[in-house]
Design goal:
By secondary structure, the protein is mainly α. The chain has a single domain, classed as Tetratricopeptide repeat domain (Serine Threonine Protein Phosphatase 5, Tetratricopeptide repeat, Alpha Horseshoe). It has helices spanning 2-37, 41-53, 57-69, 77-88, 93-105. Helix 3 (57-69) packs antiparallel against helix 4 (77-88) and helix 4 (77-88) packs antiparallel against helix 5.
Length: 111
């Protein structure tokens, strides 16, 4: 009986930790979007990177946009491609769309 209770308690704690991680990732993205809206593009890119590094695909997509447009980071279309590809592999449709546009514009991407 104690073993079953301990298992259930451990599982509840585990689910809580997963929820905290998802909330933190979404917070990075939300704070990044707010920073970008305020013209703090360098801070926005840092926050998008934190979200991306935490496994949040939309953070990778937004970081790709930062690199593509040179907002808060030096413009680098190769890095944009890499971040969009990372997000697209998770099924992020915005990143898939951005990759499609980049592939049509460039001679090196998606070959």
């Amino acid at each position: 009986m104690i073993g079953k209770r301990l298992f259930i308690l451990s599982f509840i704690v585990f689910l809580g930790l997963i929820n905290l991680n998802i909330t933190a990732n979404a917070s990075y993205l939300s704070e990044g979007e707010q920073a970008s809206g305020n013209g703090s593009n360098k801070l926005a890119a840092k926050l998008y990177k934190k979200a991306c590094d935490s496994g949040f695909a939309n953070g990778c997509n937004k970081l790709g946009l930062s690199y593509y447009n040179g907002r808060g980071v030096n413009q680098n279309k190769i890095k944009a491609y890499q971040y969009w590809l990372k997000a697209a592999k998770t099924g992020n449709s915005d990143a898939q769309h951005n990759l499609d546009i980049l592939c049509r514009q460039s001679t090196w991407a998606c070959k």
